[in-house]
Amino acid sequence: MVLLPIKCPVCNGTDVTKHGNTSNGKQRFIGKGQTCEGKTFIQDYSDKGWLPETKHQNIEMTLNGSGIRDTARVLGISPVTVINELKKG
Q1: DSSP assigned state of 7
Q2: How many other C-beta atoms can be found within 10 angstroms of the C-beta atom of residue 7?
Q3: Which strands sit side by side in the sheet containing 27-31, from one edge to the other?
Q4: Domain definitions of the chain by residue range
Q5: Average model confidence (pLDDT) for the chain?
Q6: What is the model's pLDDT at position 2?
Q7: C-alpha neighbours within 13 Å on the C-beta side of residue 64
């Protein structure tokens, strides 16, 4: 049996604890680092739009002049998800 350390996507630290479950039964974690600010994360997301890498690419493509539909097509997510993420940022 091999135990893999779980890394926090915010601080890349391995000091994380369990923080309950989502509505569909996935384990939620929370980072204990000072830069984490109490943000929770999931080890494996079922939707591509929730991945931190996808969110970062979404913002980068928008700053480089890509349209909403083009960004959605390239990233494989809904245009509504692209718009909602841009409203947050």
Answers
A1: P
A2: 16
A3: 16-21, 27-31, 40-42
A4: 7-44, 48-88
A5: 87
A6: 81
A7: 9
State residue 89's pLDDT score. Answer: 66
> 16-21 and 40-42: which strand pairing?
unpaired
- Residue with token string 């940022």: 89
Average pLDDT on 25-30 reads 92
Reported for 60-63, long-range contacts at CB under 8 A and 24+ positions apart, including other chains, are 62/86
47 pLDDT higher than 90:
no
Listed in sequence order, the residues at least 6 apart from 27 whose beta carbon sits closer than 8 Å to its beta carbon are: 18, 21, 42, 43
Q: What angle do CA 35, 40, 7 make, to 5 degrees?
A: 70
